[in-house]
Amino acid sequence: MIHPHREKQSIVVICGPTGIGKTAVAITLAQRFNGEIISADSMQVYRRMDIGTAKATPEEQAAAPHHMIDIVAPDEPFDAARFAVLARTAAAEIAGRGMLPIVAGGTGLYIKALTQGIFQAKATDARIRKQLQEALAEEGPAAMHRRLAKMDPEAARRIHPNDRVRILRALEVFEATGRPISDHHSTHRFGEAPFRTLKIGLEMARTALYDRINRRVEMMLDSGLLSEVLGLLEMGYDAGLKSMKSIGYRHMADFIEGRLPWDEAVRTLKRDTRRYAKRQYTWFKADPGIRWAAPEALEEMGCWVEAFLKRP
Fold it and tell me: What angle is formed at CA 86 by the lines to CA 298 and CA 15, rounded to 5 degrees?
């Protein structure tokens, strides 16, 4: 799939909210365009976490090769930076076989890290962080945001006044390095664009999507989500792990460990999944480079991919 006059590898990204049908679309396009799929899902990287992550089934994985699934244990650290390194390696290997890498998933930060690089400033001065946390507790986020506006007006414009985590991070970088975090961003690899990328977002009416999500949760429960989480706990994976605090797993753990009755665990699982889908929409809608289509518009998406691959 590499054009003889191109320096950058072409990749196709299929993104959108949970439950909308990204895997099915990616498989259809992979079969049509000789592709292999790179999962961009922050939960599908974990082994033994299959039902609650809606991991591609053995049949789906047989229909098109999948990568970045089942690569770490549930208690192993994993982040967007590591994903970017491994996924770029996978994309290069796929392209080396003359195949088209198709990235499919709903973790926006992972997709951004893969396609644009990721900022990795290591301003980790514990003393500075402690001082900033104490100031935040005393003064509140609005005052800290005003402080940030004086040091780094550009970052302050991008960060919501109530976003405590990002406000503290920006202040910490400034205190530790003497430079605004926006300077680090502009000189680092965001915008590096190592690939020629076609990004396709899947969308449908919210009410239809929320109905799909509710039904999907019921299917997960019928398929044994409770038993999956119980098994993980019995293997020694603590409910406090990052992976175990994700949607579905924390709800089942709360039921198993007596913090929630069953009906409430199911209700909040559906609610939190719908809220997550809404956040995903917000993330992806902010990207002007995404072309949007309904999941069933396969012919239209196929035309987009065909035209994209033909362009020099």
Answer: 25
> Do the beta carbons of residue 118 and residue 189 sit within 8 Å?
yes
Range of weakest confidence among 136-140, 166-170, 208-212, 304-308: 166-170
Residues 35, 12: contact at Cβ < 8 Å? yes
Taken in order of first residue, the domains within the chain and their CATH numbers are: 9-118+190-310 (3.40.50.300), 126-187 (1.10.20.140)
Confirm if 282 and 255 have CB atoms less than 8 A apart. no
**Cα four-point dihedral sign 129, 133, 139, 142:** positive
Contact 80, 280 (CB under 8 A): no
Selected residue with higher pLDDT from 36 and 155: 36
Q: Which helix (H) or strand (E) holds 34?
A: none
Phi, psi of 37 (to 5 degrees): -105, 135
Contact at 8 Å (CB) between 69 and 55? yes
**pLDDT tier for residue 60 given thresholds of 50, 70 and 90:** very high
pTM: 0.78
Phi, psi of 104 (to 5 degrees): -135, 125
Phi-psi region of 268 (alpha: psi -120 to 50; beta: other; left: phi over 0): alpha
Least confident of 127-131, 138-142, 259-263, 268-272: 127-131
* Strand 100-105 to 195-202 pairing: unpaired
What pLDDT score was predicted for residue 4? 47
Could you tell me the CA-to-CA distances from 46 to 40, 71, 73, 78, 164 in Å, in that order? 12, 6, 5, 9, 29
Euclidean distance between CA atoms 298 and 47, whole angstroms:
31
What DSSP designation does 242 have? T
